[in-house]
Write a structure and sequence with these properties.
Elements lengths: L4 E3 L4 H7 L7 E4 L3 H8 L7 E4 L10 E3 L5 E4 L4 H6 L1 H6 L1 H6 L6 H6 L2 H6 L7 H7 L3 E6 L2 E6 H4 E3 L2 E2 L6 E7 L5 E8 L10 E10 L2 E10 L6 E2 L1 H6 L7 H14 L10 H22 L5
Parallel strand pairs: 1-3, 2-3
Antiparallel strand pairs: 4-5, 5-10, 6-7, 6-10, 8-9, 11-12, 12-13, 13-14
Length: 290
């Protein structure tokens, strides 16, 4: 491994000042789960790593705001999400998902900000955060800006983030009256890349659905919200026929990619089945599925 410098700032603003928008060999280091693999494989050779482990504790905390929203520091380990009572009470879909994400060793060190900023379409957290309507707070040389999670990732391993910007926090709005489910199709083999991830959030009751978010990942080059399929359910009674229509609409709307996990045609069929299944499970949480 090529020698490199490591900096250990004590504030997130100081960390930002050590990054360089024009120098891709300077990278921030949070949990380092993906970065270390890239370095060991020789894919990335840094000149400097900016460690984020000594910055303000607030960026490793989970806080419930007065309005019921959840503020999650970007340096919060995934294991902290898994074991947080506030997350279990307010965002149980995350609690249910965490044990299915990688292994406990990775979850102990991997961070929320890293999972969102990496831009890997196979990650489990981005589609869930999009379905929940989350916003990421980004800190750069000119201050903070907010980005809807659905707009953060722009392509395969590509995001809106500049080289000298860092995610500082994630804000999830109140979820009162909403039920969310995340499902993924995976072989559970050693590599464990899912062929498909589906996250859905549903609001409403037996008399009619008032709001729906349907998000797919892994089968596509990034996690994306399926707008047409999501709007299909609004104002309609959630029966078996409607859920089947939603699955068909999602399959027609998605643009899957061929890769080692399966053909585009195979993944399109997975979308049809898993969207219908996820919607049914979300509705069953509230006792509204017919």
């Amino acid at each position: 491994m090529t020698p490199f410098e490591i900096a250990e700032p004590h504030t997130l603003r100081e960390a930002v000042s050590l990054l360089d928008a024009d120098d891709p060999t300077i990278r921030p280091l949070g949990g380092g789960t993906a970065l270390m693999l890239m370095m060991k494989a020789g894919v990335f050779e840094p000149a400097k790593l900016v460690s984020l482990r000594s910055v303000e504790p607030r960026y490793s905390e989970i806080k419930v705001e007065g309005d019921g929203s959840i503020r999650i520091g970007a340096l919060t380990p995934l294991a902290a999400l898994e074991h947080s009572k506030d997350i279990a009470d307010k965002l149980p879909v995350i609690t249910r998902t965490m044990p299915l994400l990688s292994n406990v060793r990775v979850r102990n060190v991997a961070t929320v900000g890293g999972a969102l900023a990496h831009g890997d379409p196979h990650m489990d957290l981005p589609p869930i955060m999009i379905a929940l309507g989350a916003t990421v707070i980004v800190l750069g040389p000119k201050g903070e800006r907010s980005i809807p999670m659905g707009e953060l990732v722009t392509g395969y391993y590509e995001t809106q983030l500049a080289k000298n910007e860092l995610i500082s926090e994630v804000v999830v709005p109140p979820q009162a009256g909403k039920r969310s489910v995340y499902l993924k199709c995976t072989t559970r083999a050693a590599h464990d890349w899912p062929a498909l991830g589906v996250a859905v959030t549903v609001a409403g009751g037996a008399g009619g659905v008032t709001d729906t978010n349907i998000v797919v990942s892994a089968a596509t080059d990034r996690a994306i919200r399926l707008d047409k399929a999501s709007k299909l359910l609004k104002g309609r009674r959630p029966d078996a026929t409607l859920l089947g229509e939603a699955g068909e609409a999602a399959a027609a709307e998605v643009e899957p990619m061929d890769d080692s996990q399966g053909s585009a045609a195979y993944k399109r069929e997975l979308v049809r089945v898993y969207v219908e299944r996820a919607l049914r499970q979300a509705l069953e949480i509230g006792g509204t599925a017919q």
